[in-house]
Structure formats: structure tokens, C-alpha cells
Amino acid sequence: MRILSIETSCDETSFALIDTDGETVTVYAHNTLSQIEKHREYGGVFPSLAKREHAINAVPLLEKTLTESGIDHEAVTINGETREHIKHLLVREEGLADKLTTLCDAKGKPQGVDAITVTHGPGLEPALWVGINIAKSLSAIWDVPVIPANHIEGHIASLALTSFTFPFSEPQTNQLAELPFPAITLIVSGGHTELVRVTDWGVYQPLGKTKDDAVGEAFDKVARLLDLPYPGGPEISQLAAEARESGIKADQVLKRPMIDSDDYQFSFSGIKTAVRYRVDEGTPLSQTDKQALAREFEEAVIDVLVHKAQAAIAAYGDNALFVTGGVSANPWLREQCAALKTKQDVAVYMAPPALTGDNALMMALAGFYRAQYAPELVLPDPDEIAAIGNLRLTERIIDKKERT
Ligand code: KG4
Ligand code: ZN
Predict the structure, then answer these.
(1) Distance 388 CA to ligand 2 centre (A)
(2) How many of the other CB atoms lie within 10 Å of CB of 289?
(3) Of 145, 167, 172, 201, which residue is 20 to 30 A from 351 by alpha carbon distance?
(4) CA of 136 to the centre of ligand 1 (A)
(5) Which of 219, 272, 390, 393 is the pocket-test mutation for ligand 1 (most atoms within 8 Å of CB)?
(6) How far apart are CA 194 and CA 171, in angstroms?
(7) What was the pLDDT predicted at 402?
(8) Strands 24-34 and 12-20
(9) CA 314: distance to chain centroid?
């Protein structure tokens, strides 16, 4: 199946053009543009800015992706009715309808493209809509279906891409890792912290999640307290690594939140408050203080994540652990999870560091799996696809109709 994939759920605009049969994947082109610099001054992602940036960057990035793919294109004729439809779809994004139709008039359609996948949730709804409306427009021009894909399912799918090396300039073909099910899955990102038992593609048993802040959010907020730029995760992990290397330790131990709660729930807002108290104590923090606090915070949070994952593995007797989402880039988390391989004799799967963040490649695969395991969930009419900001992993698209 040849897929054009679009991801715009948060602050990354991303396109991929791939072929997959479920055993191997050929990536013809993959481009991700991060908006981090634009959001930095707000200390987090600002939804209306994210939407505007997606609208500005999408067509140039799509053009780059189509060109870099090296795939031949065939001419398309866009009739008046389709042009009006696209204008209507993209009415809120000034100039976007014209830019997209101009690109398609000039470039045509990539030969052999079977489907478009697009993230329809969870994420920031204004941002999601930009990708969805581009997908609907391309579907009308190219006459191909749209497969709506779940962003979290995309993070899980990224685990099958372990053999890719980045960056690459030539099309790359690789075997997809055969993921062993059932697997205890730790989803850790800026918006999510969840333990789920994945028994097959599309079959999810939620075990627990955070009651308040997501773990990435906690990293970002603590980084702000320490005067570090957004996103805070990489900054904190850098300071924490320096502290470990120099043997620097905090004089105060932070409480590991909910570590003994005997369930799979999490809570990370209290630990952020504990760091705030420490910061507000009076004397300005030295670099060594910051390193010590970053280390203590990181180790406290990761102790809880690993402890709960371990508990779930033991309780369900599963042989595999999946760790995914933006926070899975964290080297200390990766090290602690990898250690479970010997401690608990489980196979541990993590995405290649280049694919832990949001990207269209993982979403292409999520869409492909969805089309395979539940073709009835692929809506026949792309115009029925809507952005669902709080889309659950277990939610079926047809539930959406029941919701409204
Ligand atoms: O999955 P993702 O790219 O976007 C969402 O879907 O949320 O995750 C972004 C989150 C941010 O909160 C960022 O600070 C965090 O992942 N993150 C990290 C690290 N790298 C990124 N957190 C801890 N350590 C890291 N090295
Ligand atoms: Zn994500």
C-alpha cells in the first residue's frame, strides 16, 4: 500500500510518503518541521499559533516530500466543483486552498498512491484540523481514500521501525519489527502518561493513566521553574546526566508520587510543586543546585514509571514491554527500561531516538495497521472525519457518531 501521511496534532508539521505490505516499509521521503522556536517564548505550545504555522508550512513541506520521493507523478485535472469544495474546506486558512491546488495543478499525483493517512486525534483540535482538511482536499484531487489515524497508536507503531537509520537521503527499505503481543505499554509524552496492555493491533486494555499532569508536561514545568527553555525534557535530562557524571546529588529526596498506590495510576503535579517549594526557598539556585534538582526530579519520576511498568509485567505475566512517546527519548528512562530485559526477562521495545517525537512516518504505519485490522473503521466518506482532541486509544471512529 502506497501512503501519503500527514501529522499536525501538536507543534510538528510532518509528511511521509511510504510503501508497506506489513512486512517491510520503504520510506521514499519523510519531512518534519518543528515549530519549537516559535512556541518557546510562550513556554509551551500555543494552539492558534500551531495551527497558523501548520497552514503556512504544510504545502512547501508536502511539495518537498513529493519531490524528494523520486516517485513519478501523473497529471490530474481538478474540476470546478472540486476547486469549490477545497476552497470551502480550507476557508479558515487564508491562501491555503490556492497554494494546494496550484501545487497539484503543477505536480499532479504520485503514481500508485493508494491512501492518505492523517492524525485525527488526540491533539490540539485547531492544529489537527489543518492536517485533516489538507487530507480531505488531496483525497478529492487524487481520488484516494483517507484513513484517520490515532496519534497514540502512531507512537506504538513507531516501535516497529527499529531498523531505520536517520537521517537518510535515499529511499530506505527495511523489515518491520514483528512486535510480540501481548505487551505492557508505557505511553509517555507531553500530553499523555498511560499504561496500556496491547494484546494485538487495535486491541487495547487500559490499565491506568495520570490523574493530572502528563510526565512530559511535568518535565516542561519543572524546566520552567529552573529557568530552562521549552521543551524542558531534553534540558532536564542533560542537567541530570551531568549531575550523575559528577556525582552531584540533591540533599533532599523527592517523594516518588503514588509509587505504593497498588494500581497503575500516576500523578505528577505534586512533585512539580515540591520542586517549586525548593526553588522558592530563598537563595537563587546555583548551576550545581539545578543539576542536583534535575537529577532528583528525573530519577523520582522515572522510578515511578519503571516501578508501575514492572508491576504490570509481573501481574499479567507478559514477556514484552513497549515504551513510547516523546519522553521515551529520555536516556535515563531508556536505560532503566532496558535493564528490565535482564531483571524481568522481558523483550523491551523503544522507538529509534529520531522517531520518539511526533512524525508522519509512524502515523503512516498506524493508518496501515488500522486499515488491516479494522477496515470497517476506515470511513468511506473522508468528509466525515473530524478532529477529536481527546480521542482515546480504545475509541473506535464509529463511536464518534454516537458521541455527537
Ligand atoms: O510525543 P511528543 O513529541 O508530543 C506529544 O504528543 O506530547 O512529546 C513531547 C514531550 C515534551 O513534553 C518534551 O519535554 C518531552 O516529550 N521530552 C522529554 C525528552 N525529550 C522530549 N522528556 C524527558 N526527557 C527527554 N529527553
Ligand atoms: Zn506525540
Answers:
(1) 15
(2) 18
(3) 145
(4) 29
(5) 219
(6) 34
(7) 52
(8) antiparallel
(9) 27
